[in-house]
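Allow me, if you will, to draw on your knowledge of protein folds for a short while. The matter concerns a single protein, recorded as an amino acid sequence and a row of backbone structure tokens. Could you please explain, in whatever detail you think fit, how the structure tokens follow from the sequence? I remain grateful for any guidance, and I place the record below:

…
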Amino acid sequence: MRNYIEKVAAGVRMMQHKPNAFLFCESDEYTWDEPTILGIPVFHSPYVFNSLTDENVPFIPLWGAAGEYSGSRRQFNDGFVG
């Protein structure tokens, strides 16, 4: 669990636009049972995967307002995988 906190923190530090929430892509391999990470709400879905990376990044940043956030998503992914 600590590993996820460190990876998410690294991803958030890289982002231009901070997220309002995260979507956690559940799988048999990875779990996150907490309602938040770094004080940011976490929602869960077993039906979604992170399509903006070839790496295993189970957290997807979400924003409350419409906008173009693909750059921030890529920045998060880059920071997450280090």
